[in-house]
Specification:
The chain is of the alpha+beta class and 180 residues long. The protein has two domains: 23-94, Hepatocyte Growth Factor; 108-178, Hepatocyte Growth Factor (3-Layer(bba) Sandwich), CATH 3.50.4.10. The protein is built from three helices and ten strands; from the N terminus they run αββαβββββαβββ. Strand 3 (61-65) and strand 4 (74-78) form a beta hairpin. The longest helix is centred in the first third of the chain and has 15 residues, at 2-16.
């Protein structure tokens, strides 16, 4: 009986997904091609793009591009579900998936730990903020860090090392972590 119930639930999920397996939004992936509309995203938040797709009956998939080189963050709506391609510039997904940030151990995606800074510096763009995390780990004074993606306040990526642990705030600009 329990097995039959599980099979029935799987069939319902499959049917609700339009006869295909459900897909989630993917951070670090683009879906090039198939665009029928594009618009800037002043907040720089990928979930705005997912919501736009959700509200547009013609949308089947979407790609969000982080701000870069003075250009704003952009949302691209797609008439078809094009295959994803690995690219640190973007977050993409299909209609109904929303945005699910990767779970990578101590990395806190879309989190800013504002305040407590004792040092900041420019760092190369990196979809994981690894150079910032490594700098904090190597400095005994550092208890937490925040990596700010380029295009959010400045044209370059910045690392903020913190001597105190501040509360997390949801902000798409940043990746943070607590070390000590």
């Amino acid at each position: 009986m329990k097995r039959l119930l599980m099979v029935g639930l799987a069939v319902l999920v499959w049917a609700a997904a339009g006869g295909r397996l459900p897909t989630f939004a993917q951070s670090g992936y683009d879906r090039p091609g198939g665009d029928y509309a594009s618009a800037p995203v002043p907040s720089g938040d990928p979930s705005v793009c997912a919501t736009r797709c959700e509200r547009d009956k013609n949308c089947r998939a979407w790609s969000f591009s982080y701000p870069a080189g003075g250009s704003p963050a952009m949302c691209y709506l797609k008439r078809e579900v094009v295959p994803p391609k690995a690219s640190s510039c973007c977050v993409s997904g299909v209609r109904g998936a929303g945005v699910i940030e990767p779970q990578a151990g101590a990395l806190e995606y879309s989190i800013d730990r504002f305040g407590g800074d004792y040092k900041s510096f420019e760092t190369p763009p990196d979809p994981t903020g690894k150079a910032c995390a490594d700098a904090c780990q190597a400095d005994n004074r550092c208890r937490a860090w925040t990596y700010r993606r380029p295009g959010y306040g400045t044209a370059t990526a910045r690392c903020y090392l913190k001597e105190s642990i501040k509360p997390p705030r949801r902000r798409p600009c940043c990746i943070s972590g607590v070390v000590r």
